[in-house]
Amino acid sequence: MFGKHKRLHFIARRLSTHELTRLRERDLQLEPQNLLAESPDERSTPYFLGYYSPSGIQLALEKYGIFKMLKKKGFDGFEMVIDTRDPYRHRFALYCDHTVDENTLLAEVVLKRRFVTLCPPFPSSIHGRAYEFLQVEWLVLQNPRKSFRPDRPRLPGQKFPGLGMGALVLEILLIMCWRLRLAGLLNVPEYYHNAQMYAQEFCFIDPDREGKLKALERDLYKNYGLATSSWAIELGCVEENGKPYEWQSGEMVVPLNRDLKNFFKSKAYRHSVEETKKRHRYELNPGCWQKRRQKLPEGVLL
User: Any long-range contacts for 176-182 (C-beta under 8 Å, 24+ apart)?
Assistant: First the structure.
């Protein structure tokens, strides 16, 4: 069920429902926004995703060693902010230095539970069936104390360099899916580089988008690297089959449900992906790139 971080799986099996859902006195203290709410319906639930108490989240992060890893990176004075006022979208953020502002933000994630009805473009046993996923609407992992370097340049959408803990956080999100008995983890990557980095674990539900991503990897990523490829797409300097190309995202998932796993492994899905990959060629327009790269934001060292 789980990937590289088997230690987390071992720990997760030993964390009980009682430990993760137990409300302590500090969890029940009313937040300022709750005191100002006009009705009970506007008040936030103490449970993140309808399951985790704030104390439960803190316990899990301690057991998984997240705070210990961050301390090794030089951070301390952690502050958790949990916002559950929106009944459909819950936000968790972690700050350092006992300060909550944009310059101490280490991690932020916005999650929701979402049903998706799948309609593949070919006959499939999952056609027309609805599955409930944990959707990542927003995810930031950053080190506000570091600067970008030539070997790790700024990517579109980035304010600070990454924390280097993406694989670990992905595993924790998958554990949450397992514990909540959801079909898998879902996200809609905003930028090309997000999709490329997710591609080791995620697949686009639409085989056409998956095939295009693999063609982009073949033609751009392997020739120019992640940063140049992503900025070239962002600046409109990439052509698809000889025409201007604009990044088009879609739903990517890591399946935990058995039928979904079989769908992505099926001959029909893999054949459709390969056919799309063969039909598409991507090229970086050198004239456009030389002209527009001069307008790259500060910190993009290409």
Answer: 176/49, 176/111, 176/134, 177/133, 177/134, 177/254, 177/256, 178/1, 178/2, 178/12, 178/256, 179/12, 179/20, 179/51, 180/49, 180/51, 180/113, 180/134, 182/113, 182/132, 182/133, 182/134, 182/256
| Domain contains 301 | no
Q: What is the DSSP string of 111-180?
A: EEEEEEEE--SS--TTTTEEEEEEEEEEEEE--TT---BTTB---TT-SS---S-HHHHHHHHHHHHHHT
Residues 6+ apart with CB under 8 A from 91: 81, 82, 83, 84, 108, 109, 110, 111, 138
Query: What is the per-residue pLDDT across 5-33, written as a single tens digit (0 to 9) for each?
Result: 678 989 999 999 999 999 887 776 645 44
Range of the domain at 66: 6-295
Instruction: Tell me the pLDDT tens digit for each residue of 65-116.
Output: 999 999 999 999 999 999 999 999 999 999 999 999 999 999 999 999 999 9
Domain presence at residue 124: yes
Overall number of domains in the chain:
1
Residue 300: inside a domain: no
Evaluate whether 280 touches 217 at the Cβ level (below 8 Å). no
Give strand pairing partners of 5: none
